[in-house]
């Protein structure tokens, strides 16, 4: 790989927030291995993260429609501009999100037309997405034409292996990471202060009302603990009124805080709680653990399957069972400080295995494997489907139950 310059391009509907710093790392990391790296963002608007403007300052990064969302553009216009940019850069390997999105559908089509290799990244487990058998079958047939699949962790293997075990592509891991160093304040406080922190967008899928219902029990049975909720969203006023109606006294709804202050809020807490009805991953869990927090997580958060070790660095609970959530909060609160410190240390040890360096190594190994094998050529039916499907960008399900 050191003898030949390789071009790698990542294409996605939007590449902001968590992706922003991953891309900077990957650009420098791959350049050190004589690999050119490019990042193409399709839309500047229409994302849950469009509060952050696209960054087109780097020559290796571009946003194709910085002032538009997907629903303001025709599919043909999106395809034309995506294909033109891909052909201009002419990468050897295209990396893109699931084929349900514009990025995955168009990236895969361009790659197959031009005999390039295609890596798909995905953190949504098939079992978490409700589709009828026909639609799922079409998706599986198109997805089976990729050359490699980049997953958050090997916990996802069992679901994808059942779907694609007959195809000649491989899995690799670790892209759902953050810059752990930003959250790792080295000198942790030595004593418990009773603060439990939750960081979440205030939308229905985060299940904050059930957390408040459980916290009512904690306030009635413990005189010293405090719940801190950080985040903003359409439910802010409703949740604030709900907390007042319940008579909660030791709960603060802080709204959003500046990004640079979030590590300090995490540092100041004893533990992190997230009661979501569903999370395709949940990167805020990475942040909490990188700050050295034990975690109390809904068992519907996919990150919990990889990062939470029951009784070792936290506890899991059903988001449907308020009594269970009350019990897990109580179990943690009643732990001696030495046990809480041990859980904190264990969180740091676990999350240190999922960082930028690991992401870079995994991708480098995958690129080496791809270089040694020809790209998959689709048969006639998958090729017809690939050329018919443009993808979409519907993020409504990210907020609703």
Task: Compose a concise summary of this entry.
The protein is α/β, with parallel strands linked by helices and 401 residues long. It contains 15 helices and 13 strands. It has 2 domains: 216 residues, 3-Layer(aba) Sandwich (Rossmann fold), CATH 3.40.50.2000; 172 residues, Rossmann fold (3-Layer(aba) Sandwich).
CATH superfamily placement of the largest domain: Glycogen Phosphorylase B
Poorly predicted ranges: none
DSSP strand (E) fraction?
15-25%
Distance between the termini: 46 Å
Helix fraction bin: 40-55%
Anisotropy-based shape = elongated
Structural class: alpha/beta
CATH-defined architecture of the largest domain? 3-Layer(aba) Sandwich
According to CATH, what is the topology of the largest domain?
A: Rossmann fold
Supply Rg: 22 Å
Mean pLDDT: 90
Q: For the record, what CATH class of the largest domain applies?
A: Alpha Beta
General description of the model:
This protein is of the alpha/beta class and 401 residues long. The protein has 2 domains: 6-177 and 355-398, 3-Layer(aba) Sandwich (Rossmann fold), CATH 3.40.50.2000; 180-351, 3-Layer(aba) Sandwich (Rossmann fold). It has helices spanning 18-31, 75-89, 102-113, 133-143, 157-164, 180-183, 208-221, 236-246, 262-267, 283-290, 302-307, 322-333, 337-351, 356-371, 380-388, and strands at 6-12, 35-43, 61-65, 93-96, 117-121, 148-151, 170-173, 195-199, 226-230, 251-255, 271-274, 295-298, 314-317. Helix 7 (208-221) packs parallel to helix 8. The protein is elongated. The N and C termini lie far apart (46 Å).
Secondary structure elements and pairings:
Blueprint: E1 6-12, H1 18-31, E2 35-43, E3 61-65, H2 75-89, E4 93-96, H3 102-113, E5 117-121, H4 133-143, E6 148-151, H5 157-164, E7 170-173, H6 180-183, E8 195-199, H7 208-221, E9 226-230, H8 236-246, E10 251-255, H9 262-267, E11 271-274, H10 283-290, E12 295-298, H11 302-307, E13 314-317, H12 322-333, H13 337-351, H14 356-371, H15 380-388
Parallel strand pairs: 1-2, 1-4, 2-3, 4-5, 5-6, 6-7, 8-9, 8-11, 9-10, 11-12, 12-13
């Amino acid at each position: 790989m050191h003898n030949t310059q390789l071009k790698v391009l990542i294409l996605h509907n939007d590449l902001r927030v968590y992706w922003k710093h991953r891309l900077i790392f990957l650009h420098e990391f791959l350049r050190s291995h004589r690999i050119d790296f490019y990042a193409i963002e399709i839309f500047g608007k229409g994302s849950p993260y469009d509060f952050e403007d696209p960054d087109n300052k780097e020559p290796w990064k571009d946003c194709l429609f910085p002032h538009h969302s997907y629903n303001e553009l025709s599919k043909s216009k999106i395809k034309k501009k995506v294909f033109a940019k891909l052909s201009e850069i002419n990468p050897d390997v295209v990396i893109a999100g699931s084929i349900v999105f514009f990025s995955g559908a168009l990236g895969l089509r361009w790659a197959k037309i031009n005999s390039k290799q295609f890596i798909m990244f995905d953190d949504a487990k098939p079992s978490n997405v409700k589709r009828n058998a026909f639609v799922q079958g079409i998706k599986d047939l198109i997805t089976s034409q990729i050359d490699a699949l980049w997953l958050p962790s090997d916990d996802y293997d069992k679901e994808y292996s059942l779907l694609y075990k007959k195809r000649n592509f491989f899995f690799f891991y670790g892209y759902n990471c953050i810059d752990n160093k930003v959250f790792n304040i080295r000198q942790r406080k030595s004593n418990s202060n009773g603060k439990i922190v939750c960081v979440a967008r205030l939308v229905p899928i985060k299940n904050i009302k059930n957390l408040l219902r459980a916290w009512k029990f904690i306030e009635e049975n413990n005189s010293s603990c405090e719940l801190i909720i950080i985040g903003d969203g359409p439910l802010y006023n409703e949740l604030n009124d709900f907390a007042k109606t319940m008579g909660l006294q030791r709960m603060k709804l802080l709204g959003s805080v500046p990004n640079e202050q979030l590590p300090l809020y995490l540092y100041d807490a004893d533990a992190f709680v997230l009661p979501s009805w569903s999370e395709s991953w949940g990167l805020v869990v990475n942040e909490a653990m990188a700050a050295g927090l034990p975690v109390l997580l809904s068992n519907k958060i996919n990150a919990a399957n990889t990062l939470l070790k029951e009784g070792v660095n936290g506890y899991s609970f059903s988001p449907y069972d308020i009594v269970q959530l009350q019990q897990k909060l109580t179990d943690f609160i009643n732990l001696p400080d030495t046990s809480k410190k041990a859980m904190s240390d264990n969180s740091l040890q676990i999350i240190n295995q999922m960082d930028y360096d690991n992401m870079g190594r995994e991708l480098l190994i995958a690129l080496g494997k791809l270089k040694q094998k020809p790209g998959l050529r689709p048969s006639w039916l998958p090729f017809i489907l690939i050329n018919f499907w443009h993808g979409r960008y519907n993020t409504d399900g990210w907020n609703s139950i």
